[in-house]
Design goal:
five-stranded mixed β-sheet, mainly beta, disordered N terminus
Length: 415
């Protein structure tokens, strides 16, 4: 009798669980987003944007909180890689995809902007439907490089050093003289069959001349007023593989340029003005730091684009800059990654989503995501109408949802 009662109870419990699951329905995925006045806040924070090296219409975007997204139409529309939401208890940081099999995806964890530790590196064999944890130690992964000559060779820049794998992430070895050093970026020289790779820390440049097997510090010509760079990023030119640009957060944005593949550098911009980092272009010393910092080379070898809160463009190798966007007037702030494509096309990962410009930053369109994704700190339901939700977000302000639209009713910041 007891066994029968136990079986009935189990069956009822299963029915209750299934019924509870069936009561969950998605909020209208076609809901519009209405901004508050002239301030563009967007949806949720994205810190990385990756273009497939062969399939140029295919893009991946990483949101630390919302997950990994993929687009097959040149970043116009994105859908969620569902397996990224199953990686628990960590934020997401960066992505790289196998050049010959785009179902193999490497996904880094941690928060490279707020510098929150992660759960190492993960790998998907099925296009992001599921991920398995690799043997890389727990850390913040800031950049992943897949060798173009051997897809099994990986280089991973992290908050605790540079790691190398020769078997697709089955095992990793740490580069000995990088142990304990926090790295903020890593890029491979774009020359044909080049073995030169660059990596930046918060103040130093590391260079490898043997495809990442060994690394040396090379700070020739790199200097800061207080001897600290506050985080660096690298930009390489498609038109000239000898050119290397470095962008550090020191002194309201410091730019260095190398004409000899990174052997030596000259300072292009180190003055407080223009302020490449602040919300408003003033001469006050900015505390933006490493949070959102990006640089890309443009159509010519003399053109560079920088981003922090606003986009600046230089057509003379960094001697002078023109401000292209003004704080949240065209796109959200927090410009974490800039990717330049042909025909003056910029795609940018921001604190409010992914944005594309086809005219070097004069105007933008936002990418469309399959659902309303917001990074909510807290929220509540109206006492008067259960169709009305209100939520507080760190970068977008206060958002309400009423049946058919998300509306920003209060701009950040507020208490």
């Amino acid at each position: 009798m007891s066994k029968i009662l136990y079986s009935i109870c189990c069956a009822l419990l299963c029915c209750m669980q299934l019924n509870a699951q069936s009561l969950w329905t998605p909020i209208d995925t076609n809901a519009r987003i209405i901004e508050n006045g002239s301030m563009v806040n967007g949806q949720t924070r994205f810190v990385d944007l990756y273009n497939h090296p062969i399939k140029k219409n295919k893009w991946w975007a990483v949101s630390p909180e919302a997950g990994l997204f993929v687009s097959s139409n040149a970043a116009n529309n994105f859908t969620l890689c569902k397996g990224s939401n199953l990686i628990s208890e960590t934020l997401l940081s960066t992505v790289a995809v196998d050049p010959l099999n785009d179902r193999i995806i490497y996904l880094g964890t941690g928060d490279p902007s707020n510098w929150i530790n992660g759960k190492g590196l993960w790998k998907s064999f099925n296009g992001g439907e599921s991920f398995v944890k690799l043997t890389l130690p727990d850390c913040i992964v800031t950049s992943i490089d897949i060798s173009p000559s051997n897809r099994l060779i990986l280089l991973v820049a992290t908050s605790i050093g540079i790691f190398r794998s020769v078997n697709g992430g089955v095992t990793f070895s740490q580069i000995s003289n990088t142990n304990g050093i926090a790295f903020t970026d890593l890029k491979r020289n774009l020359g044909i069959n080049s073995h030169v790779i660059y990596a930046t820390g918060f103040s130093d440049l590391f260079v490898s001349y043997n495809a990442g097997t060994s690394w040396n510090v090379n700070n020739s010509g790199i200097a800061f007023n207080n001897n600290f760079g506050y985080g660096g990023r690298i930009a390489l030119s498609d038109s000239d593989s000898n050119l290397v640009y470095l962008f550090f957060a020191a002194n309201n944005g410091t730019v260095f340029r190398s004409n000899d593949k990174g052997n030596s550098f000259q300072t292009m911009k180190s003055d407080l003005s223009p302020n490449l980092l602040s919300s408003f272009n003033d001469s006050l010393l900015s505390n933006q730091g490493n949070y959102a910092l990006s640089i890309a080379c443009g159509a010519t070898s003399s053109t560079i684009i920088t981003g922090a809160h606003n986009i600046f463009l230089s057509s003379d190798t960094g001697h002078s800059f023109t401000q292209k966007t003004f704080y949240k007037s065209i796109i959200p702030s927090g410009l974490h990654k800039i990717v330049y494509s042909s025909n003056d096309t910029l795609r940018i990962a921001t604190d409010g989503g992914i944005y594309t410009s086809c005219n070097s930053g004069s105007s933008f369109t936002s990418s469309i995501f399959s659902s309303g994704y917001f990074n909510c700190y807290s929220g509540n339901v109206s006492n008067n109408s259960h169709f009305m939700l209100s939520c507080i977000t760190p970068n977008q302000g206060e958002i309400i949802f009423t049946n058919v639209e998300f509306k920003n009713i209060r701009n950040p910041p507020f208490s």
